[in-house]
Structure formats: C-alpha cells, structure tokens
Specification:
Blueprint: E1 8-10, E2 13-14, H1 55-60, H2 67-70, E3 75-79, E4 82-85, E5 90-93, H3 96-99, H4 108-120, H5 132-142, E6 153-156, H6 161-176, E7 181-184, H7 193-198, E8 215-218, H8 233-246, E9 257-260, E10 263-264, E11 270-271, H9 274-287, E12 290-294, H10 309-312, E13 318-321, E14 333-336, H11 356-371, H12 374-393, E15 399-403, E16 409-419, E17 425-427, H13 429-440, E18 444-445, E19 447-449, E20 455-458, H14 466-482
Parallel strand pairs: 5-18, 7-8, 7-9, 9-12, 12-13
Antiparallel strand pairs: 1-2, 3-4, 4-5, 6-14, 10-11, 13-14, 15-16, 16-17, 16-20, 19-20
Length: about 500
C-alpha cells in the first residue's frame, strides 16, 4: 500500500487506518436507510455537505434505486478489496461494482493511469476520433483476445454492457439479413427495452408490454435446478438448440443471432457445460446464425481464465465486454470476427464512447491482470473460497448448492422442508436476504440473485488475499448460523 495517496474518510482518519476490515459487528451499519435523519452532527465541519446520505436526498431519488434496500450503508472510501462507510464500518467488498472492479478500489496502476491522462492534457471525451490513449487500449485488449478474434474488429459502444449487447444484435441482424434472436432462460443481458427482451426474468419485463420482437428463449442446462429434472441436461439442452435452429418444424424462423453467457451470473451462477458449448457452436455455424458471448461480467480473468468462453470451447463470433475492461470506469465494446463487419459509418454510436479516462484505466487494468497472473490467481482463490464455504456450511441442509468458477461463486440457499417433484429443495430468497444482511453486519458485502434471489453471490476483486477470503468464509458461516432455521414472516427484524 506504500505510495498510494490516502483518501480522507473524515478529519484525522485516513485509509491507511482501514487496511483490514473488522470482523465484529461493532461499527457496521444495520439501520433502515429510510430512517436516517439529517441532524447537525451529520454535517461537515463547515456545516455544509452532510457526511451521511440524508433523508432529503433519498426522497429525491427514484424508487427504482435498489441496493440500499438490502445494504443500508453510505460508502465513504474504498481501497483494495475493502470499503468503508460514513459511520466507521469497514467491509470486504464481494460486490465490487457487480464484478467491475477487477483490481479493487484505487489500485495504484489504475490511479496512476488516470492521473497521467489528466496531467497530459488529453481531451477527455472524443466520440470515435483517434487518440493515443484509444489506440493503446485497443492494442492492449487485442493482445489478449481469443485467437479466433485476434484479427477481428472492435466497436466502442455507449458505456454500458446493455448498449454493447444491443450493438451485437444490431450487427447480427445487419450482416445476416435476419431478425430473430435465440436467448436462454436465466440469462441476463441488461435493462433496456431490447436487452430485457433477451433477459430471462419475466418479472422485470411483464409490466412493460411489447419489447424486442422475435426473441425466443430455450432452457439453459443448469445442473442443480434443471428444467429437465435429474438427467443429462446438457445433452438435452443441446438437442433442443439443434432442433430449434435446424428443424423446419420447430416454429422458429432462422435467427440472426444466438446469445448466451458462458456463466450465467444474475441467473444464479450457472456455468455453461463444455458439451453444450460445443453443440451451440456447431449448431449456430450450421444454421448461419451469429453466436454472441455476453462476457460483460465474466471477462478479464474473473472465472479463472481471461475469457470464460475459452476453456469450454464456445468460440463466439462476437464478444460483448464491459465492467472490468474499464478498470472501474464506464466502458463497453464488442469485438467481432472481421467478416461480420457490415456496418455503415455511424450505424451504432453514442456520445460517451470515447472516454479517455475509461480507456486509460482499462488499459492499465488489462496490463495488471496479465502481469500479475490474476486469472490463475482467481482460479486458485476461487477454489479456496468454494472449499471454505462448503466446510462452514457443513451438513446444514439449507445450503443447497455451492457452485461457480474462479471468483464468481454462488451459494443457493433452500428450504429443505419444501421440494419439487425431483426432490430438489425450494429456493429460499428470504433466507438469502437474511444471510446477506447478517454478513454485512459482520463486515462483508455480498450480492443475491438467481431464482427467488436465493443465491448468495461472491464477486470480490481479483486482488483479494487469502486472509480476506477466509474472513469472507467465516462471515458466511456465522451469518448462516445466526439465521433461525424457521424464518419469521416479512417485516420481522433481520438477524445480526
């Protein structure tokens, strides 16, 4: 940590005093965010801006704001894998911007790259005009791409994964002359009108009426909670894909694209089986459909390899990238095979597709991930995390399944007293949310997702260390033990 300029949390307290989070509950916020009131003690030393997020600003925010509903804290600083709040609480950050912070908070390489860009006087927003920092980012990214895409083309999109997904579908439609898309149940591709149509979760799109037309969903081969029951689900799912793409009686017109995540993240941390990936690649190639791999969350080392598509042999035509490639700043691109480059100039554009700071931070992050061997490190520490979670869960039947590659791990919490026809326990979202809150009170921030939000998700920065992994494991075990086996109904006090 030497050489990092400390960021002041409050007068007289710097980040250097917060290198390790506490594991006790002391100092961790657990109050309802809506109950926070503004008083003079919340104001800065000059009586001006409050240190806490107050009731008034929160009333001004949309009800669509979501994370504070489950994580009622106000963050003030971050360093490495640790963040701190305005009340002195410290937390190991296993949310990490939904996986965007591969190098954690304020990594020296990223901070130095941003400062150097600012000090150089480089223009900060340049649309798609050429700049040295843009060229450096492109060269850095292409140096680590899968070999099948190393001679491809890159398109800078609006700075979100959703816009990059939209661009990938537009490209597929442009170069094939077709319009339909096949996606998968459990998939998550964004919250725009177009990407919601591709996303699996019905509750997110049912209130909105018509979305992108001609989108068809097929089952994803989920091993634990399979739509096919306890069977060879990867084989059956692959057969369905082949049937949908090649059988004239499938009812699905030949699509422009098939889009899939090599690991479904928001859907519950389900890795794509290699046999299914092989079938998907062969079937799309045979049908003349563009295969799009959404690696917005998996890309750049998180799953134990630079690209989650590689070890399973998915070999996509289009790679959708965001989150980690921006070094924590907004950036999104698609990289596609050169023969698909059928765009007309300006066919996909966006005001903020030329952010110099994002490109500088992204290039620095790519260099550091490669230099530090962080993909291999993610694989090793991910195994330590998964093994530890299994050990502390022990014979607690509420921990139904622990899965996920590298540092993209999920624990599905279940109700052992309720099971489906195949004997698989029902997902227990209330238990997962109670464990999430109890872990926060023990100094660890986690996400939830999957069916009924019953999967506790771990997405720590790739620079997290062994001691912090063990603290995360201990916090999960203690949180699970703290939650009663039979949870009270809603509106009851969350366990601490």
């Amino acid at each position: 940590m030497e050489g990092i300029c400390p960021v002041t949390q409050s007068e007289g307290v710097t980040l250097a005093e917060h290198d390790r989070p506490r594991t006790s509950t002391e100092g961790h916020g657990s109050q309802d965010p809506a109950a926070t009131e503004y008083t003079s003690r919340d104001a800065g030393a000059d009586g001006g801006s409050p240190l806490l997020t107050t009731t008034l600003p929160r009333r001004r925010e949309s009800s669509a704001r979501s994370y504070p509903q489950r994580l009622p804290i106000t963050l003030a600083w971050g360093r490495g894998a640790v963040v701190g709040d305005t009340r002195g609480g410290e937390y190991i950050d296993c949310l990490a911007g939904a996986g965007a912070l591969a190098l954690g908070h304020h990594h020296p390489a990223v901070d130095d790259a941003i400062r150097a860009t600012l000090d150089s006087g480089a223009p900060l927003s340049t649309l798609d005009l050429s700049t040295p920092v843009r060229d450096q980012f492109v060269e850095q990214l292409f140096s680590i791409l899968p070999s099948s895409l190393s001679s491809g083309r890159i398109l800078f999109c609006g700075p979100s994964g959703a816009d990059a997904v939209e661009a990938s579908i537009k490209l597929a439609r442009t170069c094939t002359g077709r319009t339909g898309v096949i996606a998968f149940g459990g998939g998550y591709h964004g919250m725009t009108q177009g990407t919601l149509a591709l996303t699996g979760r019905r509750s997110a799109k049912e209130p909105l009426g018509a979305l992108l037309p001609e989108v068809h969903h097929l089952p994803f081969p989920t091993e634990y909670r399979s739509p096919f029951g306890p069977s060879a689900n990867a084989d059956i799912a692959g057969r369905l894909v082949t049937w949908a793409l090649t059988d004239d009686h499938s009812g699905i017109a030949a699509p422009a694209a098939v889009i899939a995540e090599p690991v479904q993240g928001e859907g519950g941390v389900y890795p794509m089986p290699a046999p299914f990936a092989a079938t998907l690649r062969a079937s799309t190639r045979s049908a003349g459909a563009v295969l799009v791999a959404d690696e917005v969350q998996t890309g750049l080392g998180r799953t134990g390899s630079l690209w989650a598509s590689d070890p399973i042999g998915l070999d996509p035509d289009v790679l959708v990238l965001s989150k980690a490639i921006g070094g924590g700043l907004p950036l999104a691109v698609i990289v596609h095979r050169g023969e698909l480059d059928a765009w007309q100039p300006g066919a996909h554009a966006g005001t903020f597709r030329g952010s110099a700071l994002s490109m500088a931070a992204g290039a620095a992050t790519i260099r550091e991930v490669v230099r530090g061997g962080l993909a291999d490190r993610a694989r090793e520490l991910g195994q330590r995390l998964s093994d530890g979670l299994r050990a502390v869960a022990g014979d607690d039947a509420r921990a139904g399944d622990i899965r996920g590659p590298g540092l993209m791990v999920g624990v599905e919490l279940v109700d052992p007293a309720a099971a489906d026809a195949d004997g698989v326990p029902a997902p227990d979202g209330r238990l997962a949310q109670a464990v999430q809150r109890a872990m926060m009170n023990r100094g660890v921030i986690v996400e939830v997702g999957g069916t009924d939000d019953a999967v506790v998700r771990f997405l720590p920065p790739l620079i997290i260390d062994e001691e912090q992994i063990d603290q995360v494991v201990d916090a999960f075990g203690a949180a699970l033990r703290a939650v009663p086996a039979a949870l009270p109904h809603h509106n009851s006090k969350a366990p601490s």
